[in-house]
Every structure is written in structure tokens, then in C-alpha cells.
């Protein structure tokens, strides 16, 4: 009788806890995740993993919790370079009088590439491995994310006025087709249509988007019911609330990624549930801009898939998904007047698998299951701020800061190792961001 030779794997991550997300609400003690060719092979007790596998590399984190990488389901990451430029203002004043004029002065491929690169570093240091992006120059965004091995659904913008990206409706759509074709089939990058919002996109463009989204099999990602003013203006202009208008145009379906959703009736909540719409909750941006409160508990109880996003750094002002998830959970309870609502396990699911499902990546990421990509984050729970450790899921949601993220992998490749960025120069990133600060001040004739 011969012993079976150990199975070869590229990476074995051993941890005090593994939080797989699926099954729901589970934390596995003293478990390991085995990775081969960028994919998860097995999740099993450490002793069994050591007996079964021969690993090229073993990472041991006995006081760490390994979880799926966080999925930031709504961002404008080039705007990381506009962090803090126009604070403490309502949405439309913030947009029309500050953000759009600044963008007009600085936006271009270099601004987009540098903003995305800075955002990638910030996200990796906070345990985020996947993003749903919404900004101009998607070709530059996609190339930057790909260069740094970061997973992204990159938006193809459509808006009713000329920008540095496109000057006419036809040019927006022609360029969208080109970028989609360029990145079709890529292992890390995919695309979505991102019509900005109902108040900046005409019916004819929405109809065109619906047709193309069906043909190309891509999602539609937009700001929707973000403010009471948006709803009121839509009723005056179209005689309908924005959701009703989009329903008339055939867009309320399982391709729709609806962001913000602070102004909802019970009927609209149930319509979203019936049609398979995903909702992205961006609580800190909504709070800071005084836009309203997403009824997360009501949506979740109706069966709507919920995701969490930070929005852009110009309105948040960070890309901290741990902080965002904590705020999302706490705000949901307050809005529903229910301390038991949107519990830790539900919030953590929204920040991982919910986001992956919203953007159509749930077959790839969002949970630690064999066959999925090894997009993983390890959180160090050894510090006194994490003691005593009664409940790992509660700890991750209510008492964890992004500074506790020790390691991050995307498709099994280390992107953050023992708190150090891999293949990214932190000092150079900081220096470049400071140069942009001076450049923005000069171009726009102001001090950010």
C-alpha cells in the first residue's frame, strides 16, 4: 500500500479564521485556503490542508481572519485627485458650481490614469479587490486597472452634454463600443453602460442603451433616486418619477445597478425585487451631501440584492469599505428603527458577494468557494482593539479599521503583503498626488 503524493498548489493561506460568506454567517476556525492557478481549490482545516497539499508558498496568519476581498460597487476613482476640493455643499451646488468646472479644467487621460492608480493603492490597503467604476476615459481606466492586476467593471459613459471624452451622442456610443470590444473576454476587466443619471440622459439615449446592453450582455449602472429634488424635477419634466420613466423605457430589470436610491416608495421597492434590480448603498456620500437615506432594511427584506459603494473621494472622502460597511449597517438600523436589522453577516455579505452579484461577477468572486478566483483579504485581529474576540463577523463590521488589513491577493497574486504594497511605489504615488494638487490649483485658479 502506497501513500498518496500531496497535491501541488501555488499558495496555502492558513488563518485563525476563514469567513467564506457562503454559507451565510459562518466563520471557520483554524482553516486554510488552497489556491492553484489563481483559483480557490479547497477550504479546509489547517491540519488537513497540510496533509493534502504541497504548496509553493504558505502564508500563516494565526491571528488573522481571511475573507473575500471587498467589492466597492460604485466609485468614480479618478476623482481621488479631487479629494477635499469642495466639501460641505448640497449635491447640485457641489456638482454644478465646483466639481464640473474643476473637471473641465483638468480632465484627460493623465488625470484619469493617475487618479485610478492612487485609488488602487488606497483600496488595496483597505482590503478591496474589485470595483465598479463610473467615469470618463474608460479606455485609460481599464488599462490602468489591468496593469496593476486589479479587478474592475469599467463604465462606458453616456451623458447629454459634451465632455473631454466625447462631444456628441453618437461619439459616446461609438467609443463605448470600441472600449467594450477592446476588453471583451479579459480575465480581470469587463464593461457596463453608465448613463450618468435620469436628469442628464434623454429618453432616446436610454432606449439605445437598453438595446445595446441586451445585445452585448452588459449591466447598466447609474445614479437613481439620489435626491428628493431629482424626483420632483422628473415629475415636472416627464410626469413620472425616475423609476417609472426608466420602467417605461425598459430598463428596470436584472441588468440594472441602481445607485443611492434614497427616495423610494413601497411599490418601487417591490418592483425592484420583482425585476431583479441590484441597489448600491452609498451611505457616507448620501450623509455628507444630505441626499437622504436608502431604506436598506426594507430593500433587503423585500429580496433586493444589496451592495455597498463608497462613491467617489470628492464626496465621501475616502475609499474605505470597512468604514462604509459599518456606516451602512448602523444607518440601516436607524432608518428602519430596528436594532436587529441589517446585521453583521448581512452587511458583510453586501460588501462582498452582494457587490459581486450586482456587477455580474458573482461567478468569479465575492465568496471563498472552490472554483472561484482567489481574491482575498486578511485582517489582523491580534491588536488590543480587537480583544476579546467573541464574534468574528461582528468584529469585522463594527470594530475593524482598514489599517488592520495585512494581506491582499487578486487571482492568487499578492498585491499587499504584510501591509506593504506589492509592485507599487508608495512614495511616488504621494509625490504625484501632491503635484496634482498644485496643478489643479493653478489650472482652476484656486487653492484646493
Task: Supply the key terms.
8-stranded mixed beta sheet; alpha/beta; single chain; about 40% helix; 15 helices; globular; 4-stranded parallel beta sheet; about 450 residues
List the strand order in the largest sheet: 3-2-1-4-13-14-15-16
Structural class: alpha/beta
Q: Mind describing the biggest β-sheet? A: 8 strands, mixed
Separation of the first and last Cα atoms: 74 Å
Percentage of residues in DSSP E strands: 15-25%
Percent range of helical residues: 25-40%
Low-confidence stretches: none
The overall strand count is 16
Number of helices: 15
Apparent shape: globular
pLDDT averaged residue by residue: 96
Radius of gyration: 22 Å
Folded structure, characterized:
By secondary structure, the chain is an alpha/beta fold. The protein is 40% helix and 24% strand. It is built from 15 helices and 16 strands. The chain has helices at 46-52, 91-106, 109-125, 138-147, 169-183, 203-216, 228-238, 242-248, 266-275, 283-288, 296-302, 321-336, 344-358, 392-398, 426-444; strands at 7-18, 28-36, 39-45, 53-68, 70-75, 128-133, 151-158, 189-195, 220-224, 256-260, 278-281, 305-308, 376-380, 405-410, 413-417, 420-421. Strands 3-2-1-4-13-14-15-16 form an 8-stranded mixed β-sheet, with helices on one face. Strands 5-6-7-8 form a 4-stranded parallel β-sheet. Strand 15 (413-417) and strand 16 form a beta hairpin. Helix 2 (91-106) packs across helix 15, helix 12 (321-336) packs across helix 13 (344-358) and helix 13 packs across helix 14. The longest helix has 19 residues, at 426-444. The chain is globular, with a radius of gyration of 22 Å. The model has no long low-confidence stretch (mean pLDDT 96).
Amino acid at each position: 500500500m502506497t501513500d498518496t503524493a500531496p497535491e501541488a498548489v501555488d499558495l496555502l493561506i492558513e488563518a485563525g479564521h476563514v469567513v467564506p460568506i457562503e454559507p451565510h454567517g459562518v466563520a471557520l476556525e483554524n482553516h486554510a485556503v488552497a489556491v492553484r492557478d489563481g483559483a480557490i481549490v479547497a477550504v479546509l482545516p489547517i491540519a488537513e490542508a497540510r496533509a493534502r497539499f504541497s504548496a509553493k508558498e504558505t502564508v500563516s496568519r494565526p491571528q488573522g481572519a481571511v475573507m473575500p476581498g471587498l467589492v466597492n460597487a460604485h466609485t468614480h476613482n479618478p476623482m481621488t485627485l479631487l479629494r477635499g476640493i469642495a466639501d460641505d455643499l448640497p449635491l447640485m451646488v457641489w456638482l454644478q458650481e465646483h466639481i464640473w468646472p474643476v473637471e473641465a479644467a483638468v480632465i484627460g487621460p493623465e488625470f484619469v490614469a493617475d487618479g485610478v492608480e492612487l485609488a488602487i493603492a488606497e483600496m488595496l490597503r483597505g482590503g478591496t479587490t474589485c470595483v465598479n467604476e463610473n467615469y470618463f476615459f474608460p479606455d485609460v481606466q481599464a488599462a490602468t486597472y489591468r496593469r496593476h492586476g486589479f479587478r474592475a467593471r469599467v463604465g462606458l459613459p453616456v451623458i447629454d452634454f459634451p465632455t473631454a471624452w466625447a462631444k456628441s451622442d453618437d461619439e459616446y456610443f461609438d467609443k463605448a463600443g470600441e472600449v467594450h470590444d477592446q476588453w471583451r473576454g479579459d480575465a480581470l476587466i469587463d464593461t457596463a453602460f453608465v448613463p450618468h443619471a435620469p436628469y442628464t440622459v434623454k429618453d432616446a439615449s436610454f432606449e439605445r442603451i437598453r438595446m445595446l446592453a441586451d445585445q452585448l450582455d452588459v449591466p447598466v449602472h447609474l445614479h437613481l433616486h439620489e435626491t428628493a429634488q431629482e424626483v420632483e424635477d422628473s415629475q415636472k419634466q416627464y410626469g413620472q418619477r425616475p423609476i417609472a420613466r426608466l420602467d417605461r423605457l425598459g430598463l428596470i430589470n436584472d441588468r440594472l445597478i441602481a445607485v443611492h436610491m434614497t427616495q423610494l416608495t413601497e411599490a418601487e421597492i417591490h418592483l425592484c425585487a420583482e425585476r431583479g434590480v441590484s441597489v448600491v448603498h452609498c451611505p457616507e456620500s448620501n450623509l455628507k451631501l444630505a441626499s437622504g437615506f436608502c431604506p436598506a432594511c426594507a430593500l433587503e427584506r423585500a429580496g433586493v440584492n444589496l451592495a455597498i459603494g463608497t462613491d467617489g473621494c470628492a464626496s465621501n472622502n475616502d475609499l474605505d469599505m470597512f468604514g462604509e460597511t459599518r456606516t451602512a449597517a448602523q444607518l440601516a438600523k436607524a432608518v428602519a428603527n430596528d436594532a436587529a436589522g441589517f446585521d453583521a453577516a448581512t452587511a458583510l455579505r453586501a460588501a462582498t458577494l452582494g457587490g459581486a452579484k450586482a456587477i455580474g461577477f458573482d461567478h468569479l468572486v465575492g465568496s471563498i468557494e472552490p472554483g472561484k478566483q482567489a481574491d482575498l483579504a486578511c485582517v489582523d485581529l491580534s491588536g488590543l482593539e480587537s480583544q476579546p474576540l467573541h464574534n468574528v463577523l461582528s468584529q469585522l463590521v463594527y470594530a475593524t479599521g482598514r489599517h488592520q488589513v495585512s494581506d491582499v491577493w487578486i487571482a492568487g497574486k499578492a498585491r499587499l503583503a504584510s501591509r506593504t504594497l506589492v509592485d507599487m511605489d508608495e512614495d511616488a504615488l504621494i509625490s504625484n498626488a501632491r503635484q496634482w494638487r498644485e496643478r489643479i490649483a493653478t489650472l482652476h485658479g484656486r487653492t484646493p
